[in-house]
Each structure stands twice: as C-alpha cells, then as structure tokens.
Design brief:
The structure is a homodimer of 219-residue chains.
Chain A lengths: L1 H24 L6 H8 L3 H7 L3 H25 L4 H18 L1 H12 L9 H19 L9 H23 L4 H12 L9 H4 L2 H15 L1
Chain lengths: 219, 219
C-alpha cells in the first residue's frame, strides 16, 4: 500500500517536473535528462513510469484536460444557464492557464502535438461537445434562436478560444486574456442572442468577468 | 554576379528543405543534419547561410509572412471594399496554408515560437494593423457602425483565424478550413454589419467563398 502511494506520488512529481521543463524550453528541445532533473527523480524512476517523451506529454495533456473539463462538468451539474455557463467556462479556462503550470503546459503541448505519432484531437472534440450542450440549454431557455447551427458555433468557439489564449500568450504572457475574452464575447453575442433578450444579455460577458473578479477578491 | 545568384538559390533551397523537414518532424525534433539532407546542401553551406536552427526558423517565418502580407497589401491597393477585403483575406490565407509549404511551415513555427529566445510577435501585430485598415474602410463605406472598437475587433479576428486554422489542421489537415471560415463569418457578421446593410451583406462570406471557388476552377 505504502509502495503504491509512493509510486503515485513519484508519477505526479514527474508530471509536474516535465510540465515545468517543457514550459521553459519547449517540448522538442527538452531532454529526458532535463525532465528527471526538474522532477528530482532518477532516470530509472522516470523510465519506470513513462517509456517515451511523447508518453510524458500525453500524460500532461490528460492531466490538464481532466482538470479543465472538470470545470465544464461542474457548470453543467450546477445548472448554470447555458449562455452564462459558456462565458464563465472561457474565463475559468483562462484562470487555469494563468495559475496552473500543468494546464498551461498541457495546452501548449496540445498545440505542438501536430507532430506526435498520434495527433491529439480529443481535447478539442470534448470542448466542442461541452459547448454544444451549453448552447442547447441556451436555446431551451429562449436566449439563443433555435435556428443556430449548434455544432458549427461550438466548433468556432473552441477554435476562437484556442487562438485568443495563444495570441495573448505570445504578445504579453496572457496578462490581457480576460479583457480579450470580454471583447470576443462583445463581438459574438449579437450573432447569438435573440432580439427580445438583447437588452438583458448584451453585457453578460462584462458582468461575468466583474462577478468573477469580485469573488476572487473575497478568496 | 553568378556567384551571388548561386548563393541566393542555395539560401532559397535551404529554406524550402528546412520547411519540409520542420513540417514533417516538428521544429524541436529536427536536426540541422536532417535539414541539410532535405535541402540537398552540405552542412558547410547550411552554416554559411544560417548560424543556428532558430535563425532558419525565423527566415521561414519571414518568407511566409512576406508572402501572406503581400496578399493583404494587394487587397488594400485594389481598393476592395473593407468588409469584402477582410473576408477575402481569410480565404486567401487559408489557400496559402493548404497550397504552400513555406506558408504552412511558417505559421506552425510562429505558433511554436513561444520558446524561441526572441518571441515572434510581428506577424500577429502586422495582421492586426491590416485588419484595422479593412475595418476602418468598412466604417467609411457605412457597412460597419463607427462605434465598433476597431483595435479590439482586429485583434480578435487575428486570434480567431489563428485558432480556426490550427483546429482545422489538427482535426483534418485543414480540409474543412473554407467551410469553417464561412461558419466563423456567419457568427461574426451580425456583430459587425449595420442593420440597414444587413440584407445586402449577410451572405457576404458564402458569396466570397463561392466566387473564389469559381475563379479557381477557371485557372
């Protein structure tokens, strides 16, 4: 039992160390020796848990996606109105990207994974499914027109978020990501919200951003 | 003179070979020996032109950006109406990404360049400037409301295009990129076009996509 607990701990330490090393040097330029040094484990322990650098990257992507998808699941379970949940999700993902090394490393690796032996498409497809569910709830609530092409919109929001966080990362280390997301929603809401709900919902993104900032200040 | 011409040719061959090698294996996992093999030049010739792998990547990014930005410049010079130019530009970039190895390698390297010693931000900033000019022309033409936050919209379109082409690349090698762009514009036009021009412009993206396909079929 104790041995098993230690193995789980070592595996987590390797994932944290690898995330730090990949974030610092990029995936392609990081050696497994640098990963074992960053994780504080022997190369033997590293190879016991992961048989290749790609296996390590996939483990980081899985850990990141589990954490990020968990936030989406929580919004679905708490029955947050669809449009509000969609918008909240984007700010929550942005927070994770800023605060959590596993998440920022996982997202970067997902983007760099175009050259992996198996391309990493599951996170994008999962986000599309979650966005579709938020949009269907928004349609049921009467906030969004039932004529919306739900799969197309869900695919676009997933892609747009990917681009917004990436460009914000390159230009200023994601320091302006919340502002950029609020600007994104200001441009997208007119194409989503039905006219009868417009006055009530037109500032929804700015409202969510402000409420989240107020809640974070209380923590 | 002849020696200079040969040097220019060798440099271009190295850039093409490096683009092919980076596209195949990813930047981090490609060695300079693999680049010189792909380019059909000696390692000596390679080092004569480029003193590091990063210098090579930057040269590919520069070549790509020159070509892509040229298409934007052409639309500005030909006085294409702002909104139509903005939309045409997105399809033209998509075509270059599909048809031109230097462009697809350059865009991928730009995205992976977060770990370069000097981050590559110029292409994003250039695109934002071009999009701003298109949007200002659309405002002058009365297609877009003068209340639009032009820098915010230009920054978002640049980021959204980056994400759309990236996700399309991961999921199906960019085979659906034109369709994804048409869906993107369908979601964005309601937030851009003034109500008096809506009937005239609501199908602009689908129209541009169809016109480009017809023109390509004649080539």
């Amino acid at each position: 039992m104790q041995q098993q607990a230690r193995a789980i701990e070592t595996r987590a330490a390797i994932i944290r160390g690898a995330a730090a090393a990949f974030e610092q040097r990029g995936y392609g330029s990081t050696s497994l020796a640098q990963v074992s040094a960053a994780a504080g484990v022997t190369k033997g322990a590293l190879y016991f848990h992961f048989d290749s650098k790609e296996a390590l990257a996939v483990a980081i992507i899985d850990a990141q996606h589990e954490q990020s998808a968990g936030a989406g699941q929580l919004l679905l379970e708490k029955d947050v109105p669809g449009l509000r949940a969609l918008i909240s999700m984007s700010y929550e993902l942005a927070r994770q990207l800023r605060d959590d090394l596993i998440v920022s490393a996982g997202v970067r690796l997902t983007i760099e994974a175009a050259n992996f032996s198996t391309p990493v498409s599951a996170p994008y497809l999962d986000w599309m499914v979650t966005c579709e569910e938020f949009l269907r709830r928004a349609i049921t609530a009467g906030d969004v027109a039932p004529t919306l092409d739900v799969p197309a919109a869900a695919a676009f929001f997933t892609a747009a978020f990917t681009g917004v966080q990436l460009v914000s990362d390159v230009l200023n280390g994601r320091s302006d990501i919340d502002q950029r997301l609020t600007e994104m929603w200001a441009l997208l809401l007119p194409g989503l919200v039905v006219s009868e709900r417009w006055d009530e919902l037109k500032n929804l993104a700015a409202d969510v951003q402000r409420e989240r900032a107020a809640a974070a200040a209380l923590d």
